């Protein structure tokens, strides 16, 4: 499979999108979104009925759309084992889903990640931003510490100690010609580098040297890695166009962290260097807004499966949950109503097996395997 890697910077080129014939629209009007496919009209399980049980683990409309689920001592309240963050607030629960503490954000956010910065069991919250919303860092009580944006609009933000000083830095990717900026922990800019449409940003050890790099995509669908000074150390053109992506692991396929990128009705797992590890069948995964994945142990001592949830075009109001057996065969597919942007596999309470947690709009569902799935 073709994977081209370079250690030089790129010069941007124009990308032209051609459109088929469509009814005339007023000049300057946005194009009409495509109609929701018939296969997505009815929420429910279309493959693997009876393989997983499903229940509501947490329901709280004050959360807003759930965008992150993390385990750990993230709040000082006794009994906290799991943190759930949404666009409007966060909830800290025990292994049974019973709430122990709550945070209401003072300003509604776009996509929120829980940041465990080791502050005495009290996490912080990173609003990754969106084209219409600046990025920000929020304290544990929901107050905004700082906000960062620009005229081009923020596409994404990621956090990590990229320069090894023991403090987190924040990499912000901008739309258009805004490029990529690196910020100190206090939100002040360290540097900025030119690039076009920096769709998504992560902090990860790309080359295995024990130090984090900044990994991001751009308008050409390339992946670039940058060091603490912003210099490009790796550049790849994967087999699939990469815009927004996520990081996951799947030991059944390959050790270490992987990139998950959505294609048209497919999901690609890539190495951090952009090489294709696996291409997974994903019926109805078109116009994907986000794709998140987690390995999950279905049977003790067996290789883990991979659970993936994708959120589709906002006007469709649908997401899809997929489950893949260790060799990559699709064994479960469920159409979900609304947005579902968070997924995590956890051992709850005294369970001996893992439970799959999927975050929706103001709620989290819990799935448990009932049988060993077989690929269709």
Strand order of the largest sheet: 1-19-18-17-16
User: Which bin fits the share of residues in helices?
Assistant: under 10%
Unreliable stretches? 1-26
- Overall 3D shape: globular
- Which structural class is indicated by helix and strand composition? mainly beta
Number of helices: 0
The N- to C-terminal Cα distance equals 26 Å
**How would you state the average pLDDT, rounded?**
90
The major sheet is characterized as:
5 strands, antiparallel
What is the number of beta strands? 30
Order of helices and strands: EEEEEEEEEEEEEEEEEEEEEEEEEEEEEE
Radius of gyration: 20 Å
Query: How much β-strand is present in the residues?
Result: 35-45%
Task: Please explain how this structure is put together.
- With 376 residues, this protein is mainly β.
- Helix content is 0%, strand content 44%.
- The chain is built from no helices and 30 strands.
- The chain has a five-stranded antiparallel β-sheet with strand order 1-19-18-17-16, with no helix packed on it.
- Strand 17 and strand 18 form a beta hairpin.
Keywords summarizing the entry:
mainly beta; five-stranded antiparallel sheet; disordered N terminus
